[in-house]
């Protein structure tokens, strides 16, 4: 029997994609190898969020090539995930040329879209499951490569997600984690109609402009309710309501499901409806991970994050007030382009006021294709980034 090994880099979304790749390979009669260096096929699911993650892929391929020279294995190296996503979306073809040149021994570059959602994931955990609800992102934060590696946000049909969660609970799963690059905006494309998303973004640029040009009859939920694209003014942007609070509420009603978690969650779509749904359903997590990235209004603006530090304080105060036993964690980037000492101190101040129990703190890493790469200088020295990282790390993660 032919054997495979999947090496996954990066986030929970990549892990979930790897479960579907495994299912697709086993559907073709392959079996999992315990050792990467003895597998016939090695599939590398890549991440590009930071340069370090990308370099680890190049290092791994080199090691596999050396192993092949000695043992003949692996026969085939397949690269998928974010690096390939970036390559297929780069219309100039430059990035594909770069990775083909750096990885001449790779036999196949597989876009993850070709695996699709039709393959039920091959899960190794029998009590806790990850369920993707959307892929891609429309937000274009200036530092982030995700809209280029995963493309625009596409939501899975509501009914399919509910069905998958019901089946999991019937099989004995007790915990489900809903996955998306921005779970809170789940369903905006379903409500507005996918073709309208670009129109919506154009409207968003003109604050308070009338919502012309977007036509849709809305999206029908399984219980018959139709959610129409009524525009709401949220954090100074025109938005359509998202389906996430409805989806979360419906999943919480599945009998036998003990815990529902969700990542990644962004502050701007964290609506009062969502807070109310969490409040009334005790089986929804009380450990909320909400990525702030910075506490400085000026840095947030340069990052194209559509909220201010006072919006954040308002949101966190409201959440603490309404949800008992709440634990808050977050993501923060230090040393973003042009971040002054004062701007960094604004983040320190916000962190002090909110009191996060955990934070994923990263030093800014310049990424190709992003707006920050094109428009700003990565001008904070590594040693200074490290100093700021250490200050926050000690404040939040090692108090
Ligand atoms: S919302 Fe998240 S995934 Fe989307 S562009 Fe911003 S950081 Fe990237």
TrEMBL record:
Matching InterPro entries: Elp3/MiaA/NifB-like_rSAM, Methylthiotransferase_CS, Methylthiotransferase_N, Methylthiotransferase_N_sf, rSAM, rSAM_horseshoe, rSAM_sf
PROSITE patterns in the cross-refs: MTTASE_N, MTTASE_RADICAL, RADICAL_SAM
GO CC, any one term: cytosol
MTTase N-terminal domain mapped to chain residues: 2-128
SMART domains: Elp3
Signal sequence region: none
SUPFAM superfamilies cross-referenced by the UniProt entry: Radical SAM enzymes
Span of domain Radical SAM core: 123-399
Any one GO molecular-function label of the UniProt entry: tRNA-2-methylthio-N(6)-dimethylallyladenosine(37) synthase activity
Entries under Pfam families matching the protein: Radical_SAM, UPF0004
UniProt keywords, alphabetically: 4Fe-4S, Iron, Iron-sulfur, Metal-binding, S-adenosyl-L-methionine
Cofactor or coenzyme needed: [4Fe-4S] cluster
Name by which UniProt lists this protein: Uncharacterized protein
Organism, scientific name: Candidatus Gottesmanbacteria bacterium RIFCSPHIGHO2_02_FULL_39_14
């Amino acid at each position: 029997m032919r054997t495979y090994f999947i090496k996954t880099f990066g986030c929970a979304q990549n892990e979930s994609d790897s479960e579907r790749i495994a299912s697709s390979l086993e559907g073709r009669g392959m079996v999992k190898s315990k050792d990467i260096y003895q597998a016939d096929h090695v599939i590398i699911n890549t991440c590009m969020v930071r340069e370090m993650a990308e370099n680890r892929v190049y290092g791994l391929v080199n090691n596999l090539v050396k192993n092949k020279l000695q043992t003949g294995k692996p026969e085939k190296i397949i690269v998928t995930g974010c690096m390939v996503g970036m390559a297929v979306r780069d219309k100039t073809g430059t990035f594909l040329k770069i990775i083909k040149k750096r990885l001449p021994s790779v036999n196949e570059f597989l876009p993850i879209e070709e695996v699709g959602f039709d393959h039920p994931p091959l899960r190794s955990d029998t009590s806790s499951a990850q369920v993707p609800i959307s892929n891609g992102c429309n937000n274009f934060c200036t530092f982030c490569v995700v809209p280029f590696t995963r493309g625009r946000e596409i939501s899975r049909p509501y009914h399919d997600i509910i069905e998958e969660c019901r089946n999991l609970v019937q099989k004995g799963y007790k915990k489900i984690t809903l996955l998306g690059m921005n779970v809170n905006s789940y369903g905006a494309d379903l409500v507005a109609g996918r073709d309208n998303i670009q129109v919506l973004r154009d409207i968003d640029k003109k604050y308070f402009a009338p919502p012309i040009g977007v036509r849709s009859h809305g999206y029908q939920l399984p219980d018959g309710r139709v959610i129409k694209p009524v525009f709401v003014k949220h954090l100074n942007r025109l938005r359509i309501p998202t389906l996430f609070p409805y989806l979360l509420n419906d999943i919480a009603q599945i009998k036998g499901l003990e815990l529902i978690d969700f990542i990644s969650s962004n502050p701007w779509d964290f609506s009062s409806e969502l807070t109310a749904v969490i409040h009334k359903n005790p089986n929804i997590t009380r450990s909320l991970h909400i990525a702030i990235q910075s506490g400085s209004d000026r840095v947030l603006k340069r990052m194209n994050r559509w909220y201010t530090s006072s919006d954040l304080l308002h949101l966190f105060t409201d959440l603490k007030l309404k949800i008992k036993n709440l634990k808050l964690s977050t993501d923060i980037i230090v040393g973003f382009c042009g971040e002054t000492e004062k701007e960094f101190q604004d983040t320190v101040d916000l962190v002090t006021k909110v009191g996060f129990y955990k934070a994923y703190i990263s030093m800014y890493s310049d990424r190709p294709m992003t707006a920050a790469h094109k428009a700003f200088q990565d001008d904070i020295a590594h040693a200074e980034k490290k100093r700021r990282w250490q200050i926050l790390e000690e404040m939040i993660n090692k108090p």
